[in-house]
Amino acid sequence: MIFRNQKGLTLIETILAVAILVIVLPVLILSLIRLNKESAYFNVRQRIDNSLSLILSDLSTELTSAQSVKVSTSTWGINPSIFSFVDKNGAMVTIDCPTATIPLSGGDQIIHRLRLQRGAGETVWLTDFDIDVTNWTAQVVRDSSSDLTGIRLQITLAMANKNNLAFQNADSIIDFTIAVPSSVQEL
Amino acid sequence: MIKRVNNSKGFVLLEALLAVSLALIFLSALGALFFINTAGGSRIHQNNQAGLVAQSGLQVLKTIAFDDLALTSGSHPVFSSPRWTLVSGSEVVNGFTRTVRVKEVQRDADCNIVATGGTADPDSKFIESEVDWNDISGQSHQLLLSSLETRWTNPQGSCFQVSAAASLIFHIEFTYWYGGKQLRELYLENGGSVPFTITAMTLDWDNTNEIQQVFLNSTKLWSSSGPGSPSGTQLSGTRLDVDDYTMNPGDYFEMGKTQFDRSMGGSTLVLSIEFSDGSIFTSDPFIPD
């Protein structure tokens, strides 16, 4: 006894299955695309965070062991500031934030980069070529006796984004104060 | 007889559902991985930011003079160039709630920090910077950094006072015997920030000669006939209870005219000085010229 009862049913089932896929897949794929973009955004943001942490960590180490802060030759309270100090080995260190032209796939972009000059040595960029320092403001901090007790740094890092890609719209803003010991003189 | 039933209606539907279900499971798993990655990235970013905000709060407190650090159970810093001051209440910084605190420090009789039961140390304060935030899943987090600030350079209490013995600077560079018996060019200096008082001295030397008198800044502190005790000339190692003598910060006085009964040329001396705070200074062995 042989039953063969497949008439039309397989087609309906297939259509059903395809219909389910048609409904579900776009939702899933769109979700994956969105998550992928968010992941890219966080990766970019992570790079900015890492840059910021490294800059502040290095500066904290340098300033707490510095011989003096060159208050008279620095420019304070404006963006971009110029900040000078004499490091523990007696070398003059200057950190400024000049403009730099960066060739990107979407075309050249003019950004600001943090730059460090130690003595007569070569300059060192503190920020990557695709990170724009949109704010670099340094201020002297004093106590009630007008003694120099710290340096306040307001920094904003933003990812260079010539192509205006949504995931590249990442920035990081920090208002950070570095306390300096009384052994650091003021010149 | 072969009985063959070929009714695959249900099987095909099941297969289709299975396939779709599997696809859903795989895609969902993939989606979950992306979500976890994204959420993790967000948390890392928030943790980094929270750390910087908290650290900056603590650094701000360190820029304020110790005398201006009033005790507070919850404040936030406000910058009025060039000074940070504290205002009551918390603040929101980049989405993080920051609260800074200044707390008293209690110490026991041995100056060890204790949580309770001690006395408030006027020269120490705990400073704290607390940051609170919620992550993207709504879970609350807190980061608390704390440090100890001390007024060790100008202490008002007893725990950070430098002992008199530690304040004494002993100058033997040009010491010599005048006439073989009298010690010259031996100087004592108060290198501290507060006065100290000398109450006793013990001189050791490597012969049987006897000491007759001790002077400091042309003042006789002890002699065989007074002032001080014991009376009579004394052998090496005898503790001499001298007239109390106070030296102010910066005072630099010679122990001139300190004299022995016979020639001391070539002798090796060690001087111990007792102070009113109970501390004792003992010099390295020295040989006057």
Question: How would you describe this structure in keywords?
Answer:
heterodimer, A: 187 residues, alpha+beta, 6-stranded mixed sheet, 3-stranded antiparallel sheet, 1 helix, 36% strand, elongated, B: 289 residues, 7-stranded antiparallel sheet, 42% strand, disordered N terminus
What would you say this structure looks like, in words?
The complex is a heterodimer of chains A (187) and B (289). Chain A is of the alpha+beta class and 187 residues long. Chain A has one domain. In chain A, 30% of the residues lie in helices and 36% in strands. In chain A, strands 8-7-4-3-2-12 form a six-stranded mixed beta sheet, with no helix packed on it. Chain A has a three-stranded antiparallel beta sheet with strand order 9-10-11, covered by helices on one side. The radius of gyration of chain A is 28 Å and the shape is elongated. In chain B, 20% of the residues lie in helices and 42% in strands. Chain B contains two helices and 20 strands. In chain B, the strands form four sheets. In chain B, strands 2, 3, 4, 5, 6, 7 and 8 form a seven-stranded antiparallel beta sheet that branches. A five-stranded antiparallel beta sheet of chain B has the order 10-11-18-14-15, with no helix packed on it. Chain B is elongated, with a radius of gyration of 38 Å.
Distance between the termini of chain A: 107 Å
| Global shape of chain A | elongated
In the predicted model, the low-confidence regions of chain B spanning at least 5 consecutive residues are 1-5
Number of helical segments of chain A?
1
Q: Main sheet of chain A: which strands, in order across?
A: 8-7-4-3-2-12
Order of helices and strands of chain A: EHEEEEEEEEEEE
Rg of chain A, alpha carbons: 28 Å
Compute the CA-based radius of gyration of chain B: 38 Å
* Protein structure class of chain A: alpha+beta
What's the helix-strand series of chain B? EHEEEEEEEHEEEEEEEEEEEE
Indicate the overall shape of chain B.
elongated
Largest sheet of chain A: 6 strands, mixed
Strand content of chain B: 35-45%
Overall mean pLDDT of chain A stands at 86
Gap between N and C termini of chain B, in Å?
133 Å
How many β-strand stretches of chain B?
Answer: 20
Largest sheet of chain B: 7 strands, antiparallel
**Proportion in β-strands of chain A:** 35-45%
Mean pLDDT of chain B: 90
Structural class by SSE content of chain B: alpha+beta
Q: Tell me the number of structural domains of chain A.
A: 1
